[in-house]
Amino acid sequence: MDQISNVVIGWTLKPLGMACEVLDKFRKPITKKDRVSGPYPYYGATGILDYVENFIFDERLVLIGEDGAKWGAGENTAFIVEGQYWVNNHAHVVRTDPDMLLDKWITYYLNGSNLSAFITGLTVPKLNQGKLKEIPIPLPPLSEQKRIVATLDKAFAAIDKSIANTEKNLVNARELFESYLNDVFAEKGDGWEETNIKDQFILQRGFDITKKQQIYGTIPVVSSGGIKSHHNTAKAIAPGVVIGRKGSLGTAYYLEEDYWPHDTTLWVKDFIGNNPKLVYYFLKGLDVKGLDSGTANPSLNRNNVHALNVFWPPRQRQKHLVQKIDEMMAKSQHLQSIYQQKLKNLKDLKQSILQKAFAGELTTDPDMVSDQLEN
Question: Member of which family (predicted)?
């Protein structure tokens, strides 16, 4: 939600610096090499970074990301901390006035607000202390704050439970296909042969090309992280299969157009008569652990892949097998899209409820959230 422009009747609007005490002068960064492990949380802009031997603060306070955070509506820009802990210089430390402002109220408000108007710096975005103190905070009577916070707590607990369940379902949908793919190549099917990968397809290291060397065109440049740019020249013809060699190790891609396989990948130079889509699915399900170079900067070694002994289907049955895998993948992707949309709806519901809360329109109707969660 955007910053409040019209204040609800009976509410006041004060800059954060007048409603809170900013305790930034007490925070202190400790470099990683100088930290001594201990029982006390060491907080940064987005949460706990480490545990250290000592603490600075010993009270319930609000932390707000100064840099290295996100400040859009719906982000966890602010969070409450309590107990004994240390805070570095990337999070503002704020104490609310208990007679004027609940810490949960300001936390909900800041996390529901788009604070981009208060962010400075182009290369390193930052919510500096001066801008922080300028943020207008709506202040209902304390009793009204308590009522609204209690309603938000209950509503958000129900939504968060639904989000957690949906995220589990999303993971299950992904793992269902991964498990199916692993099962396809795990056992020797009827007519399958035990063979060496180098006898089924040949991998080749990709070609180096910098952004400066690229001439914009229609040819996708495929790196280990996917298609990041386009060039005017292809190095490989479609259909193509690429797997991450370094960076996103083992991530496979299927190309239906001519392409440029980047140096960070291995690409299938020769399918030796095999169905390209089947080779893609094999590489997609391949566990690359132990196949890397074993160096400080791991890279997938094509010779290690070539040396693998596997069960392999006869060429005349590969098209049918690919169709079955395609169907299972489509089902998985359909389920994933449903759950991803539900997650978006749940996050939008949170924002809608916060919008009502800070416009003075939030009711205490117990069915307010449950009705919408069932839809």
Answer: Belongs to the type-I restriction system S methylase family.
